[in-house]
Amino acid sequence: MDKSAGDTNGPEPTAPGAPRIAALRPEFIWGAATSSFQIEGATRVDGRGPSVWDTDGRRGVIPGKDTGDVACDHYHRYPEDIALMQKLGVQAYRFSVAWPRVLPQGRGQANEPGLAFYDRLIDGLLAAGIEPWLCLYHWDLPQALDDLGGWTNRDSVGWFSDYAALVADRYGDRVKRFATFNEPAIFTLFGYGFGRGNRDETPIEELHHAIHHVNLSHGAAVDVLRARVGGCSLGSIHNVQPCRPSSPADADGARWADTYWNRAYPDPQFLGRYPELLGPAMEAIMRPGDLERIHRPVDWFGLNHYSPIYVRTDNAARFRFGFGDRPPGIPVTPMDWPIEPDGFRDSLLRVTKDYGLPVYVTENGFGGHDKPDITGAVIDNDRIAFLKGYINAMNDAAAEGADIRGYFVWSLLDNFEWDSGYAARFGLVYIDYPTQKRTPKASFDWYKGLIKVARAQAWHFPWPPAHRAR
């Protein structure tokens, strides 16, 4: 056990390499997360329509010309994956519904085979004692809707509301935890802002329209879910990353990055206003009553976090910032993402202070290039060290007053990692893509042990811990 593992605030797991968890609530939820396009595969079966990511894959723009056509074949192998979750001991599983699987054209006629797949998945989770957490949207916009302007079209609010109603009516008898969107800042910034192809040249006003329409869609979906699902618990999921200036001259760039990256969605959704720097641009496109439609009551904040970002001021850029150099000496993942657990602690404290909502960590994880050794085992000690450091930081944030209610590791399985294709691996379970063989990694056993000890000892932890009782 290393030095940090022995630095405790009270009782903690005794397994080697265990992180600090004494400041976490007794009812803390430990889970795992995935998303539909990244694991399901089966993109051309049972009536599913194409998504924008299918289109990109078929254009060959993903490295290695990777596509999501097969991915982890979860569509057919979900019972095996549920069995892995049950073995892991997670209490909850965060997944997303593929909009084009249940509504191939994004609207209109529903697709019964696609709906039935999620019936089977949800029923299997419940039978295994795992609570389903359903995210409505994790980036796989139906291509038919993108052809109509996608999120830049205000009609998208109605499309998403109708989709939310379909999901609520079908699964609301069994699912009570819903997220509206996953990381809207990322799919709009990189889809309409930084983008690729023709979108690299689109006016910034297109991005502003997309931001506003996604926010309106969030509010509409919250109202639909409240009306149709009794006892539901609702939130939205945001990728919060400290935006740090690469030099003292880059402070303005960091403010602009923070505005677009961290505040453009949570501020209107949870506070009822756009951030100051973005306000004038959004006022030009808002209609009367829009902020009230966006600012609907929710129950929790979903926080995804991996690392800070370092930025530079670039007044010639559309967003007035660009990506900058990080200070020397900061460790990085194989994906070149900084490893700075203090940024995670700071993000948890900031979200609690700014929005006053309970926080669930809905993604946190380590991307590497894992390979089996000669025995077939996958010994991913770097991932274990990363998770330990970040869970320590989460415990520290809780000790300082952050209201953290759960942690979902990203990800259960290696999967299609968007613009990285299959080169990056985030899973606790190794996927051999040619054979679809699943091999739990060393991190799987580590996380399993953490959950087991945390759940066994939870009710023996003093609550609140002495250092929080003020």
Automatic annotation (TrEMBL):
<dbReference type="GO" id="GO:0005829">
    <property type="term" value="C:cytosol"/>
</dbReference>
<keyword id="KW-0136">Cellulose degradation</keyword>
<feature type="binding site">
    <location>
        <position position="138"/>
    </location>
    <ligand>
        <name>substrate</name>
    </ligand>
</feature>
<feature type="binding site">
    <location>
        <begin position="417"/>
        <end position="418"/>
    </location>
    <ligand>
        <name>substrate</name>
    </ligand>
</feature>
<dbReference type="InterPro" id="IPR017853">
    <property type="entry name" value="GH"/>
</dbReference>
<comment type="similarity">
    <text>Belongs to the glycosyl hydrolase 1 family.</text>
</comment>
<feature type="active site" description="Proton donor">
    <location>
        <position position="183"/>
    </location>
</feature>
<keyword id="KW-0624">Polysaccharide degradation</keyword>
<feature type="binding site">
    <location>
        <position position="38"/>
    </location>
    <ligand>
        <name>substrate</name>
    </ligand>
</feature>
<protein>
    <recommendedName>
        <fullName>Beta-glucosidase</fullName>
        <ecNumber>3.2.1.21</ecNumber>
    </recommendedName>
</protein>
<feature type="active site" description="Nucleophile">
    <location>
        <position position="363"/>
    </location>
</feature>
<dbReference type="GO" id="GO:0030245">
    <property type="term" value="P:cellulose catabolic process"/>
</dbReference>
<dbReference type="GO" id="GO:0008422">
    <property type="term" value="F:beta-glucosidase activity"/>
</dbReference>
<feature type="binding site">
    <location>
        <position position="410"/>
    </location>
    <ligand>
        <name>substrate</name>
    </ligand>
</feature>
<dbReference type="InterPro" id="IPR018120">
    <property type="entry name" value="Glyco_hydro_1_AS"/>
</dbReference>
<feature type="binding site">
    <location>
        <position position="306"/>
    </location>
    <ligand>
        <name>substrate</name>
    </ligand>
</feature>
<feature type="region of interest" description="Disordered">
    <location>
        <begin position="1"/>
        <end position="20"/>
    </location>
</feature>
<dbReference type="InterPro" id="IPR033132">
    <property type="entry name" value="GH_1_N_CS"/>
</dbReference>
<feature type="binding site">
    <location>
        <position position="182"/>
    </location>
    <ligand>
        <name>substrate</name>
    </ligand>
</feature>
<keyword id="KW-0378">Hydrolase</keyword>
<dbReference type="Pfam" id="PF00232">
    <property type="entry name" value="Glyco_hydro_1"/>
</dbReference>
<keyword id="KW-0119">Carbohydrate metabolism</keyword>
<keyword id="KW-0326">Glycosidase</keyword>
<dbReference type="InterPro" id="IPR017736">
    <property type="entry name" value="Glyco_hydro_1_beta-glucosidase"/>
</dbReference>
<dbReference type="InterPro" id="IPR001360">
    <property type="entry name" value="Glyco_hydro_1"/>
</dbReference>
